[in-house]
Amino acid sequence: MIDFQHILTSINEAASNEKDKGKIADYIPELAKVNVDNFGIHLIDIQQNNFSAGKSDEKFSIQSISKVLSLSMALGLIGEKVWKRVDVEPSGDPFNHLSLLELENGIPRNPLINPGAIVIADILVSKLEHPKEEFLSYVQNIANDDTIAYDLGVAKSEKRTGFRNFAAANLLKSYGNLNNDVDIVLDFYFHQCSLAMNCVQLTNTFFMFMNNGKCRRNNTLLTISQVKRINAIMLTCGFYDEAGEFAFEVGLPGKSGVGGGIVAFLPNKFCVATWSPGLNPKGNSKLGMLALEKLTTETELSIF
Amino acid sequence: MIDFQHILTSINEAASNEKDKGKIADYIPELAKVNVDNFGIHLIDIQQNNFSAGKSDEKFSIQSISKVLSLSMALGLIGEKVWKRVDVEPSGDPFNHLSLLELENGIPRNPLINPGAIVIADILVSKLEHPKEEFLSYVQNIANDDTIAYDLGVAKSEKRTGFRNFAAANLLKSYGNLNNDVDIVLDFYFHQCSLAMNCVQLTNTFFMFMNNGKCRRNNTLLTISQVKRINAIMLTCGFYDEAGEFAFEVGLPGKSGVGGGIVAFLPNKFCVATWSPGLNPKGNSKLGMLALEKLTTETELSIF
Amino acid sequence: MIDFQHILTSINEAASNEKDKGKIADYIPELAKVNVDNFGIHLIDIQQNNFSAGKSDEKFSIQSISKVLSLSMALGLIGEKVWKRVDVEPSGDPFNHLSLLELENGIPRNPLINPGAIVIADILVSKLEHPKEEFLSYVQNIANDDTIAYDLGVAKSEKRTGFRNFAAANLLKSYGNLNNDVDIVLDFYFHQCSLAMNCVQLTNTFFMFMNNGKCRRNNTLLTISQVKRINAIMLTCGFYDEAGEFAFEVGLPGKSGVGGGIVAFLPNKFCVATWSPGLNPKGNSKLGMLALEKLTTETELSIF
Amino acid sequence: MIDFQHILTSINEAASNEKDKGKIADYIPELAKVNVDNFGIHLIDIQQNNFSAGKSDEKFSIQSISKVLSLSMALGLIGEKVWKRVDVEPSGDPFNHLSLLELENGIPRNPLINPGAIVIADILVSKLEHPKEEFLSYVQNIANDDTIAYDLGVAKSEKRTGFRNFAAANLLKSYGNLNNDVDIVLDFYFHQCSLAMNCVQLTNTFFMFMNNGKCRRNNTLLTISQVKRINAIMLTCGFYDEAGEFAFEVGLPGKSGVGGGIVAFLPNKFCVATWSPGLNPKGNSKLGMLALEKLTTETELSIF
């Protein structure tokens, strides 16, 4: 039997001793205010035992991690038709100046890069009467937690400065792969990305993906097949241009966000979330990546 | 002595006999209404003798041809500082899906592609109190013709559908190479592109570039060195991805627009404008390109 | 308990009823001679029970599947130093005309694309006294099967026509990431790719990767950590530009070759190999991909 | 009347006072042996008056300048059929790591980049019985100078180290746009590039392009139309990624080589050659570019 608490405690210590904690994302002004020293980790196993270390109950902006949840909701709403508008291939593009164009003929490479997630947002805006409210309820329902909320300051901040996302949305529109107005879709998208959670809430939410689609209260929102496919996408596309490296070093499906959060899990075993706002050059939480490497090295648990 | 009138008449006949007149641009709905059979040509020589054939006095939307005029005005206003924000290299990019990104680190390849012209528009918006009015006056002054005007229907039409330009402007903004609001810059840009002229007015306007910077009334707006440089840019960058082909087949500096207009000139000799709305696959007027090839073949005049 | 034999038999039937069996690779003339109707499948489980259907004992050229074996040998020889010369990111490049350049500053994106495998070949040529002989022995040892051999006709055929590989090798050389002569490295590489196996031999060989590095006779050649990493690379990079799709649809690590072979496995459970020479447009065996989809759908087994 | 001698003398003085003389190309070992301080310039006008300054009679490797001469010979041999195998668009590619692939479906962007010149070499190898001898005679005939010769040391040096050219040739071969063996075509190509000339010989050779196709002795090898087209290609493609900049700053057609030579001309007026082996970051002779800028600024002569 693995002593998760012991491992988490030692990971937290190692994190606090690390000199170089990475660089906080500053392109969203609101995110730049966070203290780089923060580190938290939380793990929930399949039996719903909980283990924590560090600031596991401090909230942060989950940012791109929300893309898994919007994809999940879109799949529930329109099923496999999602894949007519977005592909499932890793982006693999190391060249920043091309990254906006991870579309071929208007089809984004996958739903976890920005242009792909904007297409998913467009689907939700089309299908939902009150997109922002209904998406939030959806997430609260998965997590069984009504306190989860948008951070309106972050949403507003990104709306003012997210020119690259405006560029991507307009490009999608020019290809006919955006049915609603750019402003409406991005208003939803920026709210979605502003979701604030702590590590505990994050594991409560992603418990579903680790547990064949069943939430903690045993309710289900996706078929087993849909869950497996979302998990596959997380493994191959969840960590920007570092997806291969993460699969290679850690061997778990998961997703990171520029707010410094990472969530990852071993199907049928455990789900873990880390938070540390300093990023490595590829845009993933520096201490979070190290923590997950350490966790899988010490437990020798991976999907491979 | 060359009999220009004879040559123009025979070009006009050849054009009307041509079966395949190209395809009208339909991405700006307002432009799609024009009849594909139209053809006009006008030539003015250095002594201000005029020669015409076909519908040389029918107005059309000059579109990208206006980029030469906004560049000219920007150079007059801030001089060589223009080149800190836009480069002078041919775009050379044959791949449509990359064409938005003809920027390196936010610097567009040249001022005659859309992202480059949007940067020039941003310069004018910054420097002018009433950008649209002052730019129009500038063009009227060059041409010595107060009847030149914007086509507000075209400007409005492009504003509603120009998602690719919104994408480019937002991308420039994300790189910090756009000082004003995207909407304000593009409002100016769409007006600029909507300028309506006929072939006669076009040659009257570009007479200045053929004549070392002196307009028909002998007033000057640019230094000789600035004129020569704009002319060089027209030769290397004036015809989208067909710039090399045009220099190769025709050997004159010039500029084309998706409205079907082309203007070209031999320095110190003549300036010629053609109009025919059907485009070839590279986006240049099909009959216009053939007309200019024929003109330089028959006259054996070229800069080479 | 899963009835593998029943599933394999039904897969074989479905395959023989399929009208469109894909297109045989014709760029290596020797490969073009095979009959497109061939289909075989073999599965070995962790207890070494064996199940077969179709032409599971007919040999074919394993081609790119060999890249996993050369990578494995190189890792055994020089360990983690391999990763200084090749990266581990999915290639993700959908544009054929760029695919040669899946190198950044001479570092190929991963060891399972051609330029990456050529670097691995260079490592083996440097480290082995008799590279071709020793690599063959290595593979025979893993499979516990002395009858595995190169197909010299295929090796020769590719040597005469593999201009794209000569281009890649020379490009690597120009970046200083090839220590030996291009001709010597490619001679080894073409032999490596020409390895002929049937489905049974393929599962016997890859049993090691399914079984934490232990071969069927319990001998070990790699550390557990090395095995997990190779498995991660197979999942993210094993199926050309279809790697994401394969993870999404099948959910197993594996590797395909243009000879029409595919091998895939679920760690600690089973290893399966299919062969059918007709390829889909992405370059993977058409019937093989369908077979593996069917296998994981019916068994509901995947790493996710 | 312009005092060319005065201008050349002052250019030579300015060159010798320049501190930063650029960086000598070192990828061809033989070229790296030259002294960076060398500078020479020679000008011949249409009346065949000659003006010199600096080391105008010292020989150097003309390298890429030879591409204009091989193109010229190929055009003479097979005429416009050349354009089925190579395009005439500027390369415009600022990204080094892509530059090898300035081919679309095997058609190089223009005949003055390496892949394009290799296709031209292939044409000559197909059409000539003794390619190296006949090409040399062709050049000697244009220049009316039997002393022009290959530098066999340079040819040999590049053969040993020109991996990037081997890559390009193999890639062309894979697309079916190379009819002869890679080794044979490149042996010719490396000899062609190794042609050694001094500035006087270079102007004597390119006199033909300045003079509507007539060599100094009045013999002709090309039609006027062919000459104009080659001149257009030199203007748009003659200076690597700096072609636009050169047209913009200098306004003359011309060609540069990594040996530090540049030749340029104003049709019907003069032809000038400079040599200085230090290159700027774009790969053109640093002092040569400055010299030509100064020449056209002081004479106010340009094609625009």
Automatic annotation (TrEMBL), chains A, B, C, D:
InterPro entries: Beta-lactam/transpept-like (IPR012338), Glutaminase (IPR015868)
Catalytic reaction annotation: L-glutamine + H2O = L-glutamate + NH4(+)
Keyword Hydrolase belongs to the record: yes
This enzyme's EC code(s): 3.5.1.2
Record has Oxidoreductase as a keyword: no
Domain of life: Bacteria
Enzyme class label: hydrolase
MF GO annotations: glutaminase activity
Pfam families associated with the record: Glutaminase (PF04960)
GO terms, biological process: glutamate biosynthetic process; L-glutamine catabolic process
Keyword vocabulary terms for this entry: Acetylation, Hydrolase
Chain residues that bind substrate: 64, 114, 158, 165, 189, 240, 258
Family assignment from sequence similarity: Belongs to the glutaminase family.
Cross-referenced HAMAP family: Glutaminase
Self-association state and partner proteins as the record states: Homotetramer.
Name the record gives this protein: Glutaminase
Organism annotation: Maribacter caenipelagi
Gene from which the chain derives: glsA
